[in-house]
F-box only protein 27 isoform X2
Amino acid sequence: MGASASRCRAARVPAPEPEPERALDLSQMPPELLLVVLSHVPPRTLLGRCRQVCRGWRDLVDSQALWLLILARDHSATGRALLQLARSCQSPSRNARPCPLGRFCARRPIGRNLIHNPCGQEGLRKWMVQHGGDGWVVEENRTTVPGAPSQTCFVTSFSWCRKKQVLDLEEEGLWPELLDSGRIEICVSDWWGARHDSGCMYRLLVQLLDADQTVLDKFSAVPDPIPRWNNNVCLHILMSWT
């Protein structure tokens, strides 16, 4: 009788389960080191999420030290200028909560257009309007406007149409000591024009208000009307004050 060959079966040994990684608790770090770590987090995340973690994180996010560290990391000419501006126009209380520099870093109000929906790319959103004739509409520009975020424009009708927008400069990232320092320049710029077969009249009024809506300063422009049968001319108005 022949011997039967035995078959060897390899035993299956289950792979060991990896040990769960221990989460790094940043709250155990010394505040000085945690401040440096947080300075690499985007400003909006600091204000919207990190500030909600615990009281210790909130105190760091609300401190001027964190935001000055963030500003100091930008070595460009603009960054150095912003850091110098922030240092020289700090709030009277260095322990003010929350620190206004947080919104300043998040909103970056210096050097950008603070007007919302300036060219009508979102229709009449953010504008308070008073319609005359057939009212306001938004159309494509007939003449290219250099530097505009959108080649669209607000168009009026055959009667006076008005639109207004109110900006809260503190909500945009500025604060009273900075506004009162005389070291920043507020610029207002606008383009206006007429169809080739229709004349038009244009008025511009800009008012600087305090918290009680009292007018602190104002500027008005009343340029000469554009006559009928023009060449689709577009005119530019620019004003500024400190």
Remarks:
- The chain has a mean pLDDT of 85.
- Helices lie at 31-38, 43-48, 55-61, 64-72, 77-88, 100-107, 176-180.
